[in-house]
Design brief:
The protein is an alpha/beta fold and 495 residues long. The chain folds into two domains: 274 residues, 3-Layer(aba) Sandwich (Aldehyde Dehydrogenase, Chain A, domain 1); 187 residues, Aldehyde Dehydrogenase, Chain A, domain 2, CATH 3.40.309.10. It has a seven-stranded mixed sheet, sandwiched between helices. The protein has a six-stranded mixed sheet with strand order 9-8-7-10-11-21, sandwiched between helices. It has a three-stranded antiparallel sheet with strand order 5-6-22, with no helix packed on it. Helix 1 packs across helix 7. The N and C termini lie far apart (71 Å). 52% of the residues are buried. Bound molecules: adenosine-5'-diphosphate. Adenosine-5'-diphosphate binds next to helix 7 and helix 8.
Length: 495
């Protein structure tokens, strides 16, 4: 945290959010084993600090705490929960500068993007503060005169959560905000790379007055992630599991949850198509693809993964995109003003991107710009042309700053290619043909579609994948439903 500018007068410094303890039952606690692990700044390799390396024993304890807290939290009124969530949201917004610095130092994204994420994250708390008052049941028309049929919606119970490193703040508020609003309590394991943003949220939740035991964060290293996850998934006291991360881990957790038949939400990997049709405004499409591809250095599950451009505008699009990449993108430490491309999360991520470029080039792709690592965890923003569907960068989630551009001829062909994947998270297309817009928006097999927009996530809208990209939806009024059970009550014997 040594390279950070001082906070504004009166504001808490980012370093005051750097806890070396996890957060259980409203207290800062060490692992029962006493073990810790280090958290490293991906931009410079420096150690920020250490946090507890918790295991199954610590997780069980947190689950028991959350279960006990649930017995009273579920009895609170929506208005009470709303007031606390609103306070929590306000505190997040008041501390945005320092929370952003903290996020950038552990995750690497540029400060401006970190601020965007904290605003987005606080937005979920604000939204769920409002939504919790709108959880409504039903009275159904009765077929029998002496009966009345009611539907109640009630909190599902202790909710387990495992979150990723690419949105260390917003993935927590999107899940925990919804759960707490619904009247549930939470046991959450943040990614090992980014525990500080999670712990900062606990600090602010406590300050907002959210009672002890309602939000519990168990930190663990990658080595212990498996046992923490398994303990949550197999605990009979936990009735809901929500995960955002890789498809492989999501499938494992789904299997583990089968033993107790939990309700499961999964936000998994994507392979988003970004299609530029003949009628598109090419300049707008170029601007759109910059956000959809290079935000977070390409490390989001909704990032454009396969860029399909109609053959009639292919060369124009590539040339214009290359100009913008060269002019607008600046690689560096996210904390430095002017940086638009931070480091990748770790060395393994850089190696994967290098392998993608080598594979594509060996199969005939051309490097228009970038293509190389720049030392440490940095990789140049890269454009590859003459990319085909057989290359790894078309078949796998890239999760890095490579834009692979594929040529197509017809709408039918490109929609078929776009859907020819087991993923179905986001899809984007640019077109000015009104009929085509409706046709393609309806035909894309994905949970999110951006039409003439490259960045579409907002707390107000549902976010969820089709096919192997996930189960359930987060955000908007749909997000809170994931934490509710439906109960049918039949009142009989009425005179
Ligand atoms: P990535 O490869 O991008 O880190 P992961 O799916 O591996 O994506 O990680 C997302 C989250 O899942 C992190 O919090 C990580 O610690 C956690 N995780 C990784 N492996 C397991 C596992 N076997 N069980 C439970 N959680 C896991």
């Amino acid at each position: 945290m040594d390279n950070l500018a001082p906070p504004k007068p009166g504001a808490r410094p980012a370093s005051s959010f750097v806890y070396d303890k996890a957060f259980v039952n409203g207290e800062w606690v060490a692992a029962s084993s006493g073990k810790t692990f280090e958290v490293v700044n991906p931009a410079n390799g420096k150690v920020i600090g250490s946090v507890p390396d918790m295991d199954a024993t610590d997780t069980e304890r947190a689950i028991k705490v959350a279960y006990k807290a649930f017995q009273s939290w579920k009895e609170t009124t929506a208005k009470e929960r709303s007031t606390l969530l609103r306070k929590w949201a306000n505190l997040v917004n008041e501390n945005i500068e320092e929370l952003s610095k903290l996020l950038t130092s552990e995750m690497g994204k540029p400060l401006a993007e970190a601020k965007g994420e904290i605003t987005y994250g606080g937005g979920f708390l604000e939204l769920f503060a409002e939504e919790c008052k709108r959880v409504e049941g039903d009275i159904i028309q009765t077929p029998v005169k002496s009966r009345r049929l009611l539907v109640l919606k009630q909190p599902i119970g202790v909710s387990g959560m495992i979150t990723p490193w690419n949105f260390p703040n917003a993935m927590i508020t999107r899940k925990a905000g919804a759960a707490i609003a619904a009247g549930c309590t939470v046991v959450l394991k943040p990614a090992e790379d980014t525990p500080y943003s999670a712990l900062a949220l606990c600090d602010l939740a406590k300050e907002a007055g959210i009672p002890a035991g309602v939000l519990n964060v168990v930190t663990s290293s990658r080595n212990n992630a498996g046992q923490v996850g398994k303990t949550i998934c197999e605990s009979p006291l936990v009735t809901k599991m929500s995960f955002t991360g890789s498809t492989a881990v999501g499938k494992l957790l789904l299997q583990q949850c089968a033993s107790t038949v939990k309700k499961v939400s999964l936000e998994l990997g994507g392979n988003a198509p970004f299609i530029v049709f003949e009628s598109a405004d090419v300049d707008a499409a170029v601007q759109g693809v910059m956000g959809a591809k290079f935000r977070c250095s390409g490390q989001t599950c909704v990032c454009a993964n396969r860029i399909f451009v109609h053959e009639s505008i292919y060369d124009e699009f590539v040339q214009k995109m290359a100009v913008v990449v060269e002019k607008d993108l600046k690689l560096g430490d996210g904390i430095d003003p002017g940086t638009t491309q931070g480091p990748l999360i770790n060395k393994k991520a850089v190696e994967k991107i290098e392998a993608h470029v080598q594979d594509a080039v060996s199969k005939g792709a051309k490097v228009v710009c970038g293509g190389k690592s720049k030392g440490g965890n940095f990789f140049e923003p890269t454009i590859l042309t003459e990319v085909t569907n057989e290359m790894r960068c078309s078949r796998e989630e890239i999760f890095g700053p490579i834009a692979g551009i594929i040529r197509f001829k017809t709408e039918e062909e490109v929609v078929g290619l776009a859907n020819a994947t087991s993923s179905g998270l986001a899809g984007y297309f640019y077109s000015r043909d009104f009929s085509q817009i409706w046709r393609v928006a309806e035909r894309l097999e994905s949970g999110l579609v951006g039409v003439n927009e490259g960045v579409i996530s907002t707390p107000d809208a549902p976010f969820g994948g089709w096919k192997e990209s996930g189960l359930g939806s987060e955000g908007g009024r749909y997000g809170i439903e994931e934490y509710l059970e439906i109960k049918y009550v039949c009142m009989g014997g009425l005179q």
